[in-house]
Amino acid sequence: MSFPDQRPRRLRRSAALRRLVAQTRVGVEDLVAPLFVKEGLAEPEPVASMPGVVQHTLESVRKEGRALADLGVPGVVLFGVPTHKDARGTGADAAAGIVQRALGALRDEVGDQVVLIADTCLDEYTDHGHCGVLRPDGSVDNDATLERYGSVAVSQAQAGADVVAPSGMMDGQVGAIRAALDSAGYADTPILAYAAKYASALYGPFRDAAECAPDFGDRRSYQMDPPNRREALSEVALDLAEGADLVMVKPALAYLDVVAAVRDATDAPLGAYHVSGEYAMVEAAAANGWLDGDAVLDEHLTAIKRAGADFILTYAARRVAERLQ
Ligand code: PBG
User: Fold this and answer.
1) How many structural domains is the chain composed of?
2) Is the CB of residue 173 below 6 angstroms from any atom belonging to ligand 1?
3) Rounded to an integer, what distance in angstroms lies between the CA atom of residue 129 and that of residue 158?
4) What are 195-218's pLDDT values in tens digits?
């Protein structure tokens, strides 16, 4: 009986061998932790649809920043939940707004140890819950929204954001924010563009955490349509042409083909957002004893990196980082 010379199983014989030849690795340095901070909160408030995730107070967000820094997590992305919401989302660029204060507290706590990324959008701040300002007929006014985004980004940079991350999917948002930052003296503040962000049902739990479900309608007129892959490449190309420094695909798992296509198309740093629904599904199944949550999370994060992401925004960041110590 003859045997083939090639025997791939030779390299799978022990955990150490498998580790040695692993072609994809997930490390603490790949993780970015999304954090919610809510104005006027006395105690951290658990988010029911996202076990392990809370709405933070200013004090608890500072502690969380310290813990993440000590674990070696290199980045956080901040979302604010204001007490007051209005049509123009004025809380988003208020000098003493909730995100601005959280940025100050975190900067004070962690210095340059952790990259502070501010999500630049209006949906958490508008009373109607849309990502932009509205025309009288209820449709989103793209260009009026760009002006707001510019002002929000400048106020976040002023408050200490290292990176601003526009997530509203308005046309021209990266260019408008770049111009606003440059003219306000923040030419060195990078932009992480949510370049290919799809209109996904997987954002459900996030809207509980950020209290930003739209009052009426949906986000399909500005976020991307799930069937479209080539369009993601043009969105990425546009954002890079407008001055994006880093780009992102969101959600991650249901869009791994998009992550891979964007990876092939650009050398820019590429992030993928393992979103609230992706996290919640694993947590729910694990809580029922239907699968091993930690193992599935590791497999999912590995898949996202294997598809080509350089870094992953995930609600599991702290837990995974703790396990990786
Ligand atoms: C918009 C924003 C959303 C998420 C991140 N930024 C919500 C939306 O577009 O509806 C969703 C993230 C998640 O589901 O984890 N500011």
Assistant:
1) 1
2) no
3) 25
4) 999 999 999 999 999 999 999 999
